[in-house]
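Subject: Sanity check before I submit

Could someone independently write out the structure tokens for this chain? I want to compare against mine line by line before I put it in a report. The sequence has 353 residues.
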Amino acid sequence: MATQFNVGFNILGYLLSFVQFGFIVGTLTFALLTLADRFSPSRIFMICAILGGVFNLSLLIPNINVINLLTARFATGFFLAGIYPVGMKIASDYYKGGLGRALGYLVGALVLGTAFPHFINEFSWSSDYKAVIISTSLLAFIGGFSMWLFVPDGPYRRPVSKLQLGVITQLFSIPNFRKAAFGYFGHMWELYAFWGFVPIILKTYANLHRIELQISFLSFIIIGIGAISCVIGGLISLRSGSRKVARNSLLISGIFCLVSPLLFLLPAQLFILALCIWGMLVISDSPQFSTMVAATAPPELRGTGLTIINCIGFAITIISIQLLSFLTDKIDNTLLYLFLGIGPLFGLYGMRK
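---
Independent answer below. Compare away.
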């Protein structure tokens, strides 16, 4: 899609970042209005899934211009704010204990959803990107209606009866909430930039070694394999605690960032294996950070707490994605991913004792 527009800037970076920007505005709106804590989360999920799918389909409008294209991406991101954090809110309403395992499964589903368009692109009936857009929108509609029909509000939901505009400062005044949030922010600096650049990492390696790689299929595997680590991390958290799983995952994925230039020197099989391990560790801490945030927020403000850390976390992803996009033409592409190590270092420092 990006190649169809002759513009004087890196439109690919903007196509990625406008979804994040929409998500930031959406989560900030949801958090300030405490929507997930005041109204039925399952109904919010359904409405946002449908509207997000509609705006995703709007990319197929004939002769769409750049402004409308970026607006559609922004709107899709805005309504994702009613899906991902609201989904975690719904999960937290069903569990008093074992939330780390539950969110491990939920974030595992997020990972598969993130990877699935690459799978569709590799095996779809058409080589046209339109097949991906149509398929993902239909799946969004199905997901929204399924949530509304089969997942009522949880038994531990404690709705807020009125608007609370000072809730954000109230939440960040809680020390353990703040520490968990800082760890999550460091994780987010790395996560979406890594996911967004996986195809570029593979293409850089293929060009460097002058070999052919199935970039779409391998992108699906490298991103999608994180679903397994989310589930495993959730199970381990029952025994070792969410903090330990989150800290160790963040530490090892940070090491991958710092040694990333050396990965391009590996033989192809070892290179793919290393990316798969990185793909597992880059996401396995995410559900555990969310568990820590949910556990440290007051029960009646869990939805808002999860939403606001998502808002700030995704704002951080815009900076890291744009930084890598900017540096693509400035430095050797094998050195790009060193800069992702900033996030894990910050996160580990933020969640110290």
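---
OP: Matches mine. For the report I'm noting this point. The chain is about 75% helix and 0% strand.
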